[in-house]
Write a structure and sequence with these properties.
CATH topology: 434 Repressor (Amino-terminal Domain)
Radius of gyration: 15 Å
Largest sheet: none
Number of domains: 1
Order of helices and strands: HHHHHH
Number of strands: 0
Distance between the termini: 12 Å
CATH class: Mainly Alpha
Structural class: mainly alpha
Strand content: under 5%
Number of helices: 6
Shape: globular
Oligomer: single chain
Helix content: 55-70%
Organism: Chryseobacterium luquanense
Protein name: HTH cro/C1-type domain-containing protein
Length: 104
């Protein structure tokens, strides 16, 4: 099975934003998972996404944003603030993607 491509700058920023969001809520990570499970019957597995050893799907990220009551656009704005390289720049076009695919 072919290894998934991970853009480390993106996964790190996503992890950092998720950590910030649950810190803003002021409750423990396990409590967050349990609370969401009780509300919608789905465990978010937030602990997995607080490390860079993930490749979150769009659907999972939407669920995470839904739980934290934040829009996807706001989430990605925060991710771009965590790492300026994630903001589009014509001069760097394709750099992060090329680097990620070379590692596969």
């Amino acid at each position: 099975m072919k290894k998934q491509v991970k853009i480390i700058e993106l996964t790190q920023a996503i992890s950092d934003v998720i950590k910030d969001l649950y810190k803003e809520k002021g409750t423990a990570l396990l409590d967050e998972n349990n609370q969401y499970f009780n509300e919608v019957g789905k465990n978010l597995g937030l602990e997995r996404y607080t490390s860079t050893d993930h490749n979150v799907t769009c659907s999972k990220l939407f669920a995470i944003c839904d739980f934290f009551e934040i829009s996807l656009s706001e989430f990605f704005k925060r991710a771009e603030e965590k790492n300026e390289l994630l903001k589009f720049d014509k001069e760097r076009k394709g750099d992060l993607v090329s680097k990620a695919y070379r590692k596969v």
